[in-house]
Write a structure and sequence with these properties.
The complex is a heterodimer of chains A (about 230) and B (about 230).
Chain A: H1 2-21, H2 23-42, H3 48-75, H4 82-87, H5 93-123, H6 131-156, H7 162-189, H8 199-224
Helix pairs in contact in A: 1-5, 2-3, 2-5, 3-5, 3-6, 3-7, 5-6, 5-8, 6-7, 6-8, 7-8
Chain B: E1 2-13, E2 16-27, E3 31-35, H1 42-49, E4 57-62, E5 65-66, H2 70-73, E6 76-79, H3 91-101, H4 107-117, H5 133-145, E7 151-155, H6 163-178, E8 182-186, H7 190-196, E9 199-204, E10 207-213, H8 216-220, H9 224-229
Parallel strand pairs in B: 3-8, 3-9, 6-7, 7-8
Antiparallel strand pairs in B: 1-2, 1-4, 4-5, 9-10
Helix pairs in contact in B: 3-4, 4-5, 5-6
The chains are: A mainly alpha (about 230), B alpha/beta (about 230).
């Protein structure tokens, strides 16, 4: 119970800080919208090939925009040595990690929810035909991106080149997660439901989330304490 | 039982030994002034005691518990070089946050109590980024003392404080010592530290050069200890 309370306290603190400064959200949201709109002008939205790449394009944009949010996850603790104050408190590393991951997860989901209608309009796709399944893909993929990004954000927090290092470390690890998300989203935005063999991609996403959440929770103390 | 037991602690930065076989005990209720020149290893030792860094060899115990254990960390209050306060939160939000993280009962009341003790109750809803430096430092003192820690680890606590913040810190330190809490503070401000200290530990290039009771001689002549046990 105390672990859960500490996790939620950290998450609430991060969300409050971000909503006051809007540093990461503004940058991430504007980046995502600009890229989505620019690509819509580059491709013919009525062409079949555009619809085929729409899922991939959407997740590339979310992944790039997501890193802007995840970069701030631990970096925001650097000012005034707040990270030291947190580590020297009795908050377990896992609660600190999960709190930060939950806050980033909420921010990324909010950005995705804003971007989806824009995506639908500019790419002429009916993204809402299977809302439950799309929500499942969004939730599983976003959690995977968040967990990996938050862990590497902790790892790179003291590096001078962390803004460069984070994407270099995160994207290779995210390949299976993004591949699954792209496959599933392409199906869903084409108006088809997830069926048959495609559930294997969902299982891959769920396994990815479980494995990386467990790894992150186990490793976070070693990452944070030098 | 010793409040702090430092047993053969070594710490390396690359090949460089920042701490070399440091061992000493701090009795409960005592106030130790941790002295040493810049780069002697004071901050490194305090970071290990605060659970912010792991020793390469040796161990540190707080009231018999390993310093890295969560319950041991609940018994320490740390005031380091940074204030450990969030600029984008208000004073009360900062203290409430740490009160919740430490699992204190009645976090709101506790936060208000410390805002009053540090003279910040009138600006409790103001964002820290709008505070003067002195106000931020007083809030940092409140944050470190909020949970009534049994051990206080202070890294150069008087450095860069304004007069009011020094007065607040001296008052709360005296009260903490009167209540039997243990204080370990690194400092270059010998006069202030030696007036409060019951014991002195001197680190010289990562090695413990002296540990013992503070004497009248040290208070009258703060440079005495460096001349006798420090670097030439």
């Amino acid at each position: 119970m105390r672990f859960l309370r500490q996790t939620l306290t950290v998450a609430a603190k991060d969300l409050r800080s971000e909503l006051r400064t809007k540093e990461a959200v503004n940058a991430s949201l504007s980046f995502a919208l600009v890229i989505l709109i620019l690509f819509s002008f580059a491709f013919d939205p009525t062409a079949e090939t555009t619809r085929e790449i729409a899922g991939g394009l959407l997740w590339l944009v979310f992944a790039f925009a997501g890193v802007l949010v995840l970069n701030r996850s631990f970096a925001r603790e650097l000012a005034n040595d707040c990270l030291e104050a947190l580590i020297s408190s009795p908050v377990p590393g896992a609660a600190l990690f999960l709190g930060k991951a939950l806050a980033s997860f909420a921010l990324l989901l909010a950005i995705e929810v804003v971007c989806l209608p824009v995506f639908g309009v500019f790419y002429n796709v009916t993204w809402y035909s299977h809302p439950g399944q799309l929500a499942l893909v969004l939730l599983l993929t976003t959690w995977g991106v968040t967990v990996v990004g938050t862990l590497f954000s902790a790892l790179t927090v003291n590096l001078r080149l962390r803004e460069v290092m984070l994407p270099m470390l995160v994207y290779p690890v995210l390949i299976p997660c993004l591949m699954a998300a792209m496959q599933l989203t392409t199906t869903l935005v084409a108006g088809d439901p997830i069926a048959g063999d495609q559930w294997a991609w969902v299982r891959l996403l769920a396994s990815f989330d479980i494995i990386f959440t467990s790894l992150a929770v186990l490793l976070i103390d070693s990452v944070l304490i030098g | 039982m010793s409040a702090l037991a430092i047993e053969g602690v070594w710490k390396f930065y690359g090949d460089f030994p920042a701490l070399r076989d440091i061992r000493f005990n701090v009795e409960a209720g005592s106030c130790v002034a941790l002295l040493g020149r810049n780069g002697a290893g004071k901050t490194t030792l305090l970071k290990i005691l605060a659970g912010l860094s792991r020793p390469a060899k040796g161990q540190v115990k707080l009231f018999g518990q390993d310093a890295s254990e969560r319950s041991a960390r609940a018994s320490i209050g740390v005031l380091g070089h940074g204030i450990g306060i969030y600029d984008e939160l208000s004073a009360i939000e900062n203290l409430r946050l740490f009160a919740n993280l430490y699992g204190l009962a009645e976090p709101e009341r506790k936060a208000m109590e410390w805002l009053e003790r540090t003279g910040l109750e009138r600006v409790k809803d103001g964002l820290v980024r709008e505070f003067s430096r002195g106000m931020r430092q007083r809030l940092a003192v409140a944050r470190a003392f909020l949970h009534n820690p049994r051990i206080l680890l202070l890294d150069e606590p008087f450095t860069a404080l304004d007069d009011r913040a020094i007065a607040v810190l001296q008052t709360v330190l005296r009260e903490a010592l009167a209540e039997g809490r243990t204080v370990l503070m690194s400092t270059h401000q010998l006069r202030e530290a030696l007036e409060l200290a019951t014991h002195v530990a001197l680190i010289n290039r990562g090695k413990l050069a002296f540990t013992g009771e503070r004497t009248r001689e040290m208070v009258d002549d703060p440079g005495w200890i460096y001349r006798h046990y420090g670097e030439a």
